[in-house]
Amino acid sequence: MDLNKIFNTKNPIIGVVHLLPLPTSPRWGGSLKAVIDRAEQEAAALAAGGVDGMIIENFFDAPFSKDRVDPAVVSAMTLVVQRLMNLVTLPVGINVLRNDAQSALAIATCVRASFIRVNVLTGIMATDQGLIEGQAHQLLRYRRELGSDVKILADVLVKHARPLGSPNLTTAVQETIERGLADGVILSGWATGSPPTLEDLELATAAARGTPVFIGSGASWENISTLMQAADGVIVSSSLKRHGRIEQPIDPIRVHTFVEATRRSLEALANPQPVSEQALRSQESGVRN
Question: How far apart are CA 238 and CA 215, in angstroms?
């Protein structure tokens, strides 16, 4: 997966637009215009803040079905995504929760989006929706049938879930890439807003062997300089919301702050400062003492 080609940077910052409840979801409010208006505000805030791409997902449709969503959800998401793509010029990804990868791929292909996010591509995860089985064989064949070049970003040991058995992270990453044919992998913490550890990111990056690794949750301007030491990109949402609360709309000031912090950390990683002679003398003095 060529990140430069898609995002015009090798270390993309991807913001997330959480759609208000869609038709047939328990909290559907009855107005698709309200959904579109909020989504347009959030997409504009992400673009103005300087992110490199965005993911659109039906986050507020919880409780989710574990696989196929209602056709009304697919129809509504297609309409909303098309509106947002006409509004901003960012590369767009689709995530149809909890794990309707085929619908995500269909939407993305029809509107010419760049990628999809798949929570469970391979293996079996125990979730609050029940057992979710990866359907990589169906998804990859469906992509071939569609003649689509939409990329697949797959979560590894996804948040809000536990694997059956005890797979180690290295094996899970390798199988997601080598057997599931993911174009990129995503590593999250245990829940929304919880970051992965630097150690886990390092293990994932080593196992990925050049396939892009994304931070999938919990990134903030306080921890991004640490997390980006072992990741190719970041997917961010919670810390961009007003007051950092997930139910609130995206705050453009928080977007700008996060983007600036991320780019400063990337610049520091690319251009490490040499240790000064004075600092070395201080270190040596401390060792002698």
Answer: 13
How far is Cα 145 from Cα 192, in angstroms, rounded to an integer?
A: 34
Residues 205-258: pLDDT tens digits? Answer: 999 999 999 999 999 999 999 999 999 999 999 999 999 898 999 999 999 999
The answer to whether 15 and 255 are in contact (CB under 8 A) is: yes
| 227-239: b (≥16 Cβ within 10 Å) or e | bbebbbbbbbbbb
Q: How far apart are CA 237 and CA 247, in angstroms?
A: 11
User: By the 8 A CB rule, do 153 and 132 touch?
Assistant: no
63-89 pLDDT, tens digit per residue, is 998 889 999 999 999 999 999 999 999
CB contact at 8 A, 94 and 77 = yes
Backbone angles phi, psi at 186, to 5 degrees: -125, 135
Give the lowest-confidence range in 80-89, 135-144, 164-173.
Answer: 164-173
Give the integer Cα–Cα distance in Å for 40 and 104: 20
- Range scoring the smallest mean pLDDT among 151-155, 193-197, 210-214: 193-197
Q: How far is CA 144 from the centre of its chain?
A: 24
Q: Which of 72, 191, 185, 68 lies closest to 133, judged by CA?
A: 68
Q: Within the chain, how many helices (H) and strands (E) appear?
A: 10, 11
